[in-house]
Amino acid sequence: MDRPVALIVALAAERRALRRSLAMPHERRLGRLRLVAGILANQAVVLIQAGIGATRARTALLTVAREFPFRAAWSLGFAGSLADDLAPGDLICPAVVLLDDGRQGQALAASPSHAAIRATLPGASGGPLLTVESPLRTEHAKRAARERTGAVAVDMEAAGVAVAAETLGIPWLAIKAVVDDVWQPLPEFLASCSTPLGDLRWRGLLWGLLFADRRRAFRRLRRVAGQAALSLKRSLDVALRAESP
Prior knowledge:
The protein is built from seven helices and eleven strands. The N and C termini lie close together (11 Å). The relative contact order is 0.21. A hairpin with a 2-residue loop joins β3 (33-40) and β4. The longest helix is centred in the C-terminal third of the chain and has 32 residues, at 212-243. The chain has one domain: Nucleoside phosphorylase domain (Rossmann fold, 3-Layer(aba) Sandwich), CATH 3.40.50.1580. Strands 1, 2, 3, 4, 5, 6, 7, 8, 9, 10 and 11 form an eleven-stranded mixed β-sheet that branches. α2 (54-64) packs parallel to α5. It is globular, with a radius of gyration of 17 Å. It is an alpha/beta fold.
């Protein structure tokens, strides 16, 4: 069997969605990290729930790489749209990830295989992906980030994966599925629904569901997250077959 590909996600919901696609999944913990080793598209993979933020993503990949001889690292999961033509369920496979520095962003170029892999994902945007420290919750914040950096979408982890992969000397790639439109605000109560490690915080969720407006927002997000997860699962199988050594 070839050396595995590291598949790094932030949230438990993302891990659970992708785990269903793995053959012979084997779950374990490495410290506080949740791992699932398995087979996808006839390739060995290790699915890593890293937690929220670029620093956790970078640390998680470097930590797990001490036990697995990864040949590549992919940042997977959900993203927010910064462009009017990207809607929930749409894919981003960026040629460049920008680590937000308050200006145009520090550019990190994807591996040379990016173009060939993106070509197998019909409709996937190859525009820049911006990695930020804090969520962009309002339309104003999203449009300001778009104008400042030129990014088409935003996440919180991809740049951390890119930095760690470059440290390890392995190629990296990001595939993200959009969950919120550029004009759609993200409810602030969502911050209380997840732990920093990406697990569901039940108390915050149940408290939020006491309010009718929050229940409506949660139902909408659950629906679009389901669309995004399905799009991500389908694309991952296709992309791994294209990347096969």
